[in-house]
Design brief:
Strands 1-2 form a two-stranded parallel sheet. The chain is globular, with a radius of gyration of 15 Å. Helix 3 links the parallel strand 1 and strand 2. The chain contains five helices and two strands, in the order H-H-E-H-E-H-H. The protein is mostly helical.
């Protein structure tokens, strides 16, 4: 949280814009929106800045046990309240295609 507080919104936007330009998706963990996380306001500030870019996202439960696998969806109400829409998230199939396109691009530049 203290680290996030030191980063400006302009820097966050530049970071997420660079991710989008390089076909990278950002992982959002439900923990970042948990009331138990004392720096939840800094996470929200970071993801508000990301909204001003073309970044794509994947949800992650950050699960350590099988029963936690669906926990990643708990952050959706907070994200929707901030203005996120379904088209900003990659589904599993889209993520697979995304990775395949990145790998094929990388493989062609290695040759």
């Amino acid at each position: 949280g203290q680290v996030l507080a030191e980063i400006t919104d302009v820097s966050f936007e530049a970071f997420f814009r660079t991710m989008a330009q390089n076909n990278k998706a950002s992982e959002i963990s439900a923990f970042q929106f948990s009331p138990k996380y004392r720096d939840v306001d800094q996470s929200k500030r970071m993801y508000r800045a990301a909204l001003r870019t073309d970044a794509k996202f994947v949800l992650d439960s950050d699960s350590h046990h099988l029963w936690e696998i669906g926990d990643g969806l708990r952050c959706l109400p907070a994200l929707y309240d901030m203005g996120y829409t379904d088209d900003l998230f990659l589904s599993f199939d889209q993520l697979k295609q995304y990775r395949m396109s990145v790998n094929s691009t990388r493989d062609s530049t290695i040759r």
